[in-house]
Amino acid sequence: MSTGWIVLGVIVVLVLFAFSAYNRLVALSQRVGQAFADIDVQLKQRHDLVPNLVETVKGYASHERGTLDDVIKARNSAMSAQGPAQVSAAETQLSGALGRLIALSEAYPDLKANANFQQLASELSDLENKIAASRRFFNNAVQEYNTGIQQMPAALFAGMFGFTRKDFFDLGASRTEVETVPQVKF
């Protein structure tokens, strides 16, 4: 009779632990989703800013059509990207194209002095800082989630509950491309 109670007690403890582990992993997963949504909000603001920036530059640098077209293509690609991996790759391309666009202001003093361009460039810089902060928050949430599903004893239940590893929002192989200062030659 007492061994029956011990076995029942162990089963109850295991079930309670499984519920606890499941709830913790759900909370971590929700945090990752919320962090990605925060990045998405910042990226949408940047996407909305790009056409205004391109139109401002068009008036001063009309023969820089290739750079302007690259920015628009990168923006459209970034807007249609889905999931952290695709969004990360598309946003890396957009960041590079925007860097080249901003570098054009060095070759056009009138553009650089234009109040509208200065305001848009300032807004873009502010958004880039917010995006970087959102990426750090997202990557931290992903790190906590991935650690949570790999730590024992939750790792015993994570696979059964359908929790799989999440990808970081990283610049990846094109990191050197983004960090390289664009060269403007005429």
From TrEMBL:
<keyword id="KW-0472">Membrane</keyword>
<comment type="similarity">
    <text>Belongs to the LemA family.</text>
</comment>
<protein>
    <submittedName>
        <fullName>LemA family protein</fullName>
    </submittedName>
</protein>
<dbReference type="InterPro" id="IPR007156">
    <property type="entry name" value="MamQ_LemA"/>
</dbReference>
<dbReference type="InterPro" id="IPR023353">
    <property type="entry name" value="LemA-like_dom_sf"/>
</dbReference>
<dbReference type="Pfam" id="PF04011">
    <property type="entry name" value="LemA"/>
</dbReference>
<keyword id="KW-0812">Transmembrane</keyword>
<keyword id="KW-1133">Transmembrane helix</keyword>
